Amino acid sequence: MRITLIDLPEAGERLGAGEQAYEYQTGDRALRILGPACGFGPDHLQRLRIDGLYAETLEEARGHARKREATVTGIWFVKPTA
Length: 82
Description:
Layout: E1 2-7, H1 8-16, E2 23-26, E3 33-34, H2 42-50, H3 58-67, E4 72-79
Protein backbone atom coordinates (compact mmCIF):
# COMPACT_ATOMS: atom_id res chain seq x y z
CA MET A 1 0.00 0.00 0.00
CA ARG A 2 1.24 3.46 -0.88
CA ILE A 3 -0.14 6.57 0.82
CA THR A 4 0.33 9.95 -0.86
CA LEU A 5 -0.49 13.45 0.43
CA ILE A 6 -2.15 15.61 -2.23
CA ASP A 7 -2.78 19.35 -1.87
CA LEU A 8 -6.38 20.52 -1.96
CA PRO A 9 -6.77 21.72 -5.58
CA GLU A 10 -5.62 18.38 -7.02
CA ALA A 11 -7.32 16.44 -4.24
CA GLY A 12 -10.65 18.02 -5.20
CA GLU A 13 -10.23 16.65 -8.73
CA ARG A 14 -9.46 13.18 -7.39
CA LEU A 15 -12.45 13.26 -5.04
CA GLY A 16 -14.62 14.41 -7.94
CA ALA A 17 -13.44 11.39 -9.94
CA GLY A 18 -14.64 9.07 -7.15
CA GLU A 19 -11.40 8.41 -5.29
CA GLN A 20 -11.89 8.14 -1.52
CA ALA A 21 -9.82 9.94 1.08
CA TYR A 22 -7.72 7.85 3.44
CA GLU A 23 -7.13 10.75 5.84
CA TYR A 24 -7.63 14.51 5.86
CA GLN A 25 -4.45 16.46 6.68
CA THR A 26 -5.00 19.43 8.98
CA GLY A 27 -2.89 22.38 10.01
CA ASP A 28 -3.10 21.12 13.60
CA ARG A 29 -0.78 18.11 13.87
CA ALA A 30 -2.75 16.83 16.87
CA LEU A 31 -5.96 16.50 14.82
CA ARG A 32 -6.27 13.38 12.67
CA ILE A 33 -9.46 13.07 10.61
CA LEU A 34 -9.84 9.71 8.90
CA GLY A 35 -11.73 9.26 5.63
CA PRO A 36 -13.77 6.44 4.08
CA ALA A 37 -10.75 4.63 2.60
CA CYS A 38 -9.26 4.04 6.07
CA GLY A 39 -10.95 0.63 6.22
CA PHE A 40 -12.15 0.59 9.82
CA GLY A 41 -15.48 -1.07 10.64
CA PRO A 42 -18.75 0.91 10.70
CA ASP A 43 -19.18 0.80 14.50
CA HIS A 44 -15.70 2.21 15.10
CA LEU A 45 -16.17 4.84 12.40
CA GLN A 46 -19.46 5.95 13.93
CA ARG A 47 -17.72 6.57 17.25
CA LEU A 48 -14.91 8.46 15.50
CA ARG A 49 -17.47 10.51 13.55
CA ILE A 50 -19.24 11.55 16.75
CA ASP A 51 -15.86 12.66 18.13
CA GLY A 52 -15.11 14.64 14.94
CA LEU A 53 -12.31 12.29 13.90
CA TYR A 54 -13.94 10.71 10.82
CA ALA A 55 -15.53 12.38 7.81
CA GLU A 56 -17.07 10.96 4.66
CA THR A 57 -16.67 14.17 2.65
CA LEU A 58 -14.25 17.07 2.42
CA GLU A 59 -16.93 19.46 3.65
CA GLU A 60 -17.59 17.30 6.70
CA ALA A 61 -13.84 17.16 7.40
CA ARG A 62 -13.62 20.94 7.10
CA GLY A 63 -16.48 21.29 9.59
CA HIS A 64 -14.73 19.04 12.10
CA ALA A 65 -11.50 21.00 11.64
CA ARG A 66 -13.23 24.40 12.05
CA LYS A 67 -14.67 23.28 15.39
CA ARG A 68 -11.09 22.83 16.59
CA GLU A 69 -9.84 26.03 14.96
CA ALA A 70 -7.85 24.10 12.35
CA THR A 71 -7.97 23.87 8.58
CA VAL A 72 -7.79 20.99 6.13
CA THR A 73 -4.59 21.46 4.10
CA GLY A 74 -4.47 18.28 2.04
CA ILE A 75 -5.80 14.77 1.63
CA TRP A 76 -4.01 11.45 1.93
CA PHE A 77 -4.95 8.90 -0.72
CA VAL A 78 -4.05 5.21 -0.58
CA LYS A 79 -3.28 2.89 -3.49
CA PRO A 80 -2.56 -0.82 -3.23
CA THR A 81 0.90 -1.84 -4.41
CA ALA A 82 1.71 -5.12 -6.06
